[in-house]
Amino acid sequence: MHFGHDDKTNELLAKVTAFMEAEVYPAEAVFKEQVEQAVADDSWSFPPIVMEIRAKAKAQGLWNFFDPSDHGAGLTNLQYAPIAELTGRSIQLAPAAFNCAAPDTGNMEVLSMFGTDEQKKTWLEPLLAGDIRSAFAMTEPQVASSDATNVELSIVRDGDEYVINGRKWWITGAMNPDCKIFIVMGKTDPEASRHRQQSMILVERGTPGFEIIRGMRVFGYHDRDHGGHAELRFTDVRVPASNIIGGEGEGFAIAQARLGPGRIHHCMRSLGIAERAIEMMSKRASERVAFGKPIAEQGVVRDWIAESRVKVEQLRLLVLKAAWLMDVAGNKAAHTEIQAIKIATPQTVEWILDKAIQVHGAGGLSQDFPLAEWFAGMRTLRFADGPDEVHKNALARAEIKKWA
Amino acid sequence: MHFGHDDKTNELLAKVTAFMEAEVYPAEAVFKEQVEQAVADDSWSFPPIVMEIRAKAKAQGLWNFFDPSDHGAGLTNLQYAPIAELTGRSIQLAPAAFNCAAPDTGNMEVLSMFGTDEQKKTWLEPLLAGDIRSAFAMTEPQVASSDATNVELSIVRDGDEYVINGRKWWITGAMNPDCKIFIVMGKTDPEASRHRQQSMILVERGTPGFEIIRGMRVFGYHDRDHGGHAELRFTDVRVPASNIIGGEGEGFAIAQARLGPGRIHHCMRSLGIAERAIEMMSKRASERVAFGKPIAEQGVVRDWIAESRVKVEQLRLLVLKAAWLMDVAGNKAAHTEIQAIKIATPQTVEWILDKAIQVHGAGGLSQDFPLAEWFAGMRTLRFADGPDEVHKNALARAEIKKWA
Amino acid sequence: MHFGHDDKTNELLAKVTAFMEAEVYPAEAVFKEQVEQAVADDSWSFPPIVMEIRAKAKAQGLWNFFDPSDHGAGLTNLQYAPIAELTGRSIQLAPAAFNCAAPDTGNMEVLSMFGTDEQKKTWLEPLLAGDIRSAFAMTEPQVASSDATNVELSIVRDGDEYVINGRKWWITGAMNPDCKIFIVMGKTDPEASRHRQQSMILVERGTPGFEIIRGMRVFGYHDRDHGGHAELRFTDVRVPASNIIGGEGEGFAIAQARLGPGRIHHCMRSLGIAERAIEMMSKRASERVAFGKPIAEQGVVRDWIAESRVKVEQLRLLVLKAAWLMDVAGNKAAHTEIQAIKIATPQTVEWILDKAIQVHGAGGLSQDFPLAEWFAGMRTLRFADGPDEVHKNALARAEIKKWA
Amino acid sequence: MHFGHDDKTNELLAKVTAFMEAEVYPAEAVFKEQVEQAVADDSWSFPPIVMEIRAKAKAQGLWNFFDPSDHGAGLTNLQYAPIAELTGRSIQLAPAAFNCAAPDTGNMEVLSMFGTDEQKKTWLEPLLAGDIRSAFAMTEPQVASSDATNVELSIVRDGDEYVINGRKWWITGAMNPDCKIFIVMGKTDPEASRHRQQSMILVERGTPGFEIIRGMRVFGYHDRDHGGHAELRFTDVRVPASNIIGGEGEGFAIAQARLGPGRIHHCMRSLGIAERAIEMMSKRASERVAFGKPIAEQGVVRDWIAESRVKVEQLRLLVLKAAWLMDVAGNKAAHTEIQAIKIATPQTVEWILDKAIQVHGAGGLSQDFPLAEWFAGMRTLRFADGPDEVHKNALARAEIKKWA
């Protein structure tokens, strides 16, 4: 057992830290202004500053860290974890800057693992190059999304084409006009066995019958900077049969393969959010004076800061262990650990953000600080890929079985 | 000791309940659309539907319930409490419909108690009539607002005028162009004793030098329906000397007089929010099916619903007792109880809203349900009139003293 | 609505307060010594000091407050509530001193409501006089006691007698040799409908075949002062047929009738424990110095004290409301409120005791202070009459039904 | 980074697991009976079964795992951690069985690091051999023990002797007659600088003037099996000058050196308690039927089990990381991590035990299961070596300083 990072990770951490300090943190103020402007312009594209920083990062080879293949940085999950955490410290800017933002990362993984050569050439390459963006359309408004077998969108073969009908919502990134390609999950065979009914199919933006209805908001946020969360309608949308990914009936398996890394990446980045919040809370507590002394002198504020530190240290180690297990024993072997971090992360980081907000006073809830927006994002993680309660239930069932 | 409402209250409750069912709840959908449109139009006025319902309520004499005088409904705090709770069930519509919305209610109380005849004629009458709206400008961005003696805005006598310079923020209602009058707290005599330095002064919208800088947002919400929360700048703003309220040095005393009822009104309405959330959570749990059964069958969901009921019953009784104490022994005698409900209300109702959101799935965080917006509003109560921690500290000090 | 006590209550409160100060609190130290001695002597009787105080209380007419009939103090539940709370402040001494201790109170109620004249003469009169003690034997080791229909002890008619076989545990008071009479719940007709199978029967201490196996301990406490918690075995125990209470098949109904008041009395007394703990915590915080200042100056300690006050005020009002509802509308109408206080009381008071212990340092866990023993007693309330979870489940079911 | 144990650890784990299964778990029932008997006999010695198992363990070389030197097992902290956790699964039997029980381990470390050759020969050797037991006397009843500089017991040089006067309490192990040697902390020079006033001195049991006053109880438990917790009085106790450890003024430094490993050992063992509790809770939930189904089917019970697993996984990793840091960078470098586990362990394990008790019903609080006794022990850890609040305060101070 050993708790230090390897040399490769440390070197990369140094580079990414330097880039964060030189390019990312100083850009946060401009980014905020540009996002405000985007509201006025009703724009959903990446703000210009993001494009500028992406260009610099790409030029320096700080790119595609998430990608374990030789197209990317070739990092293991364990090596990627602290890098991803670092990007979480500027969650709206940094993951996008390094082409490591969800949902593109998961989509690239899907195409990389299950795509045909043609699919890779047409969609994976521009995604890896950062030229386009993508979306993953699974959740549907009318069914409980906690069970992937519930999807109702229909995909019907008709000659050389598939015809798609149905609705989706909470499709992150879809409002961004640069989001050119959608991986859409639906049912090709409602008569097949429970986990063989679903397929994944590629739908290009602008295909006739494909409509973007509206952007879902989280609390009052549009999340324009990462392309919002769209509600979509598919009405007799026709795509070439070659757009199917991995074959009919493979949809559930692909979804499962995509979820493991997706979940842990969220958790890794969330650690960065927590660390930034602790830093902000500590600084604010030192600077803000009330009743004649810095609020850092107040016992309750200290209690929050101490608990935050104690919580985040524990959480990080579990995320790292899950990453290591995925590396050495596979995603399936890390199932319990991935569930555990999926459960622990939002509750922990939400708690820390709540306290950081409280230390900032009413301003902490406003546009003057990013804390409330981070809280909103973290709150969604208690639903993303199924509500916490579903995961706890499954984890407990496995635990009880161990002893039965 | 007796836990039933008196006849007057029960009769009024019946009338208000009927009005809510006939006019308010059915209007919620239209209201929501109009608020969405207001964003597009950058409007901050009351949505038209509110004006329509106000007219109907006023015509039926369902008006100014908050006002204990004979201008209003002549209710005690204890009688008003369940009415205010009822309006909290449709928090964005109902308080405004009955001319019982903050901050107007508190401002009318200030004018009623401390205003000159001329001030009453010019400002109180149109407020009571619902013809204009008002704001209360106390909080400042650069100082901890938890201590009312901290205000820095300067009010300097110059002949027959006062000259005002300074900044304010979180001035609720101020973005609404119908908000015609501002009660502004500032310092007239920085040399006076600590609680005699402050004065309240009336500033009319549009006075030269008075600027509305921007609207503060709460979790991304503009709160347009109740006039937002403005940041204001006063630059050599000149008002007639007769605009002072109650005389120089009275500002702190007036602020204190205003706070007691203001706090308890918030708490009363919050009970209505909690009740509506429990209702929504219960209904949703009955209707939504996951893994083959209504989620109302899940033990964890039941636990949330039971805890919600147990919490809200306790909270309501304490709010009612505080109201009763204010009636029979005065606001000062009810000090501890008012502090206690100020502390207990947001933490309790926030907890309930969090669970109601979780039962609604991701939709619970979106614009499709009001729960996230209510959560955001409730979260601000942990700061309003000073953060919880200040109140807990004071309450504990008094408790310890009892036994020393 | 009115939150003040009536004159009768206030007069009685004054008398009981005076008695507590003159006789009860000063006796606590002696009581503790005598309980220690009881361990050495393996005695389970009331310590002598309790008998002395009982005699004084009885002589002053401070006796049987719990009894709403004209044998007792003739108090309503609402009038009894603050008196019971007062006795809770010295929970090991005061309820016994006034002949208001469980389980005797509930047993007297059963005999009073359902007993024959002979049963009343033989058992109720000496209990009201405080000459003997009693026990209520319902819980069984081998079945989940959360459902009263589960009892398995068999009661079989044989001529003029009933023959009893079975086991019971957690029979409070039974170790005390003065506990002369047991109300035993068992099955007389396993074939009857679910709530008609059970009966209650009187078994005198010393009846052949009746054995006291051992005392159950709670944490490490024997609870000798209130007669411990016994495990009992009944082997062909024969009692006269006239010992049945209320008739065969009435057991379940009697148990239900007994539970309502039993639960609320526990809650009333628990408020007194909480108040005493807050007082002790506040005093200790003032007196104990660490790192150069009283720990009352520490923000975290203040937070605990404030939260304790806020919690206990809310809890008390709900207990009082439940008592009032029982008085004006009957125990059935107060069902939800009784469930609510059954759920809220132990979790609230346990929380307060935990903090009071922490303020007392390690001594707070020891025999030098009563806090840990109170905590242990409060912890048992989360099981008594069924675990919290059962009550929450039922309460939630009713809440959901309201909205379905 | 790597999360697997090394071969040495895995081999030892296998051996200790086998021994636990062959000797320890089967002996738990006998042990319990013997402890009950010890109460009757007022005995404080190790129960005979412990002596038998110790003999077997020693014979198999399963001995002194805690000791990193070549007298012991030569394990690093990281290697010892999972072994210690394993012994925590039978916390009353296993640590003693392997001569790894507190406070002997810490005392042996003190003698090993700071003792003279003669002290080692006289006291360390029989302790390592398991022939005697020892105690560490630091805490005093009259001062806040959270600050080691507070000790008041006086140690005065008088010729070739030291004369000791003062009081101590909570001296674990001291009631056991086999506890032959006491390491006593006191002041040799009240005029010296703050951390140079204290010294450690050896006092043999039976030295004139040395009295054992009484055993402190924890939640009613005597903790006879590990020698109780004594209150001691020293009245002109005279010991040879050679009994001083490390020299006058070294007391504070020795105390600090002892605390780091002491704390982490407690945390390691506590993980074993938590694991055993999860196992018991899971098994009981599978077996116990209520309302027609195993309580493992209840959502709330599953929620507890899932949360327990998620919590304990995080806690363990932080304990292991702290151990690793101590090994590679020294105890000082691991300061924050040791504080963090000191804070996190009791609150986590207490929570798990509370839920495990609830799943066991009232029996869970009684002598029929070890859960309540474990809870009591865990509760003391929130005070041991200073209350949590002191540690949180210090940890927060350091965190804030990082960002100032």
From TrEMBL, chains A, B, C, D:
Gene Ontology terms, cellular component aspect?
A: cytoplasm
> What is the annotated quaternary arrangement, including any partners?
Homodimer.
Name the record gives this protein: Acyl-CoA dehydrogenase
Q: Record keywords: Oxidoreductase included?
A: yes
The molecular function GO annotations come to:
acyl-CoA dehydrogenase activity; flavin adenine dinucleotide binding
Domain Acyl-CoA dehydrogenase/oxidase C-terminal: start-end pairs: 249-398
Annotated Acyl-CoA dehydrogenase/oxidase N-terminal domain ranges read 9-131
- Its GO biological process terms? fatty acid beta-oxidation using acyl-CoA dehydrogenase
Q: Which family does it belong to?
A: Belongs to the acyl-CoA dehydrogenase family.
Q: Which residues form the Acyl-CoA oxidase/dehydrogenase middle domain?
A: 135-237
Q: Which Gene3D superfamilies match?
A: Acyl-CoA dehydrogenase/oxidase, N-terminal domain, Butyryl-CoA Dehydrogenase, subunit A, domain 2, Butyryl-CoA Dehydrogenase, subunit A, domain 3
Keywords (alphabetical) are: FAD, Flavoprotein, Oxidoreductase
Q: Where is the signal peptide?
A: none
**Co-factor requirement:** FAD
